[in-house]
Amino acid sequence: MNDPKSAVLGAEAASEDMRSRRRALLAASGAHAVHDGLTDLVYVLLPIWQAQFGIGYAMVGLLRGAYSGAMAGFQLLASRLARRWGRKRMLVGGTALAGMAYLLAGQAGGLAILLLALALGGLGASVQHPLASSLVADSHEAGGGSRQALAQYNFAGDIGKTLIPALTGLLLTMASWRLSVSLMGLLGLAAAGVLWRLIPDRLPSAAAKSAARAAGKGSRGGLRALLATGAIDSAARMGFLTFLPFLLQSKGAGTADIGLALSLLFVGGAFGKLFCGYLGARVGMVRTVWLTEGMTALLIAMSLALPLFGTMAMLPLLGLALNGTSSVLYGTVPELADATGREHAFALFYTGTIGGGALSPVLFGRLGDLAGVPVAMLALAAFLLLTLPLSWRVGRDLDA
């Protein structure tokens, strides 16, 4: 006979596990939304800082690169420190540091302080991707449950990219950039406090034990090709986002218009991640990457020729293709990582893609100084086409 007391205890444990999974997913998704929103808020502020401090495109790229470079360079170390100090403390501390960095940026009187603030912001943001995604993966059963939870986590990041730049664009029409940036810093500090209360201290053990069984047998060549594909895709995306505000300005857009344009782009990108993940499962990774990257290169070229209204109307479709590729590439990492190296493979992938995104604004910004924004954007579109042979190489390893 079944023990009624054991059945009650089992039901209570299952209920507690469910609450832990929900809290973990909500905390990770909230952290993703806040961090991604603060990260992409820099794009709205770049034209303002250029006018405020009288800088060229190369320095604009350096400002963007300071944030992205610090974020990319610290991710592997952040995952190691989390083993010593705890994932919860690192995630909360990083979120608080990102908020304090924006408070410092709001008080910056010169480029040195602004560069320091952006580097500190990137340092704080570096903990989010490796720790929040592992929080989701460890709290859900490997397989369909984990994939669905990670999809929701990724979608939340794009919601943050949409709301925070749009909110700041609205604030900039009513207040100074310093006050607007400081308010976003307070948002980061408030988010850190919420995460401290929300992240569960105990995760469901069954989900964590099953995580390793989802990894593939491993392919170093395919993983290197995938990393190169992701780095180029990220470099083109970050380069385009850096130049987009200036392209819109040349077409007559104001600050509020630029905030709206980025929101349209990120809305398309959010749905692109969901749609392209589904498309990749139906038609394969290689065909999906060729479709999205080819469409992205074409639409970037078209954005140069279209008037302001046409460019704004095209941005959701461009965002779908621009961001959708990353969802397909991210989902391919477990198929190429060996059973014991999945976390390391994800860390390498995040570091490589964000590193490519950090270098791109500096390099293409220099090209923009020398030859102009249109030439730099056309070079970005051509550079993006390098992903086509690389993704074919990844597809060969997947088939094998």
UniProtKB/TrEMBL annotation:
It comes from the Bacteria. Residues 24-399 form the Major facilitator superfamily (MFS) profile domain. Keywords: Membrane, Transmembrane, Transmembrane helix. The chain crosses the membrane at residues 55-78, 90-120, 177-199, 225-248, 260-281, 345-364, 370-392. Coiled coil: none annotated. InterPro entries: MFS, MFS_dom, MFS_trans_sf. This is Membrane protein.
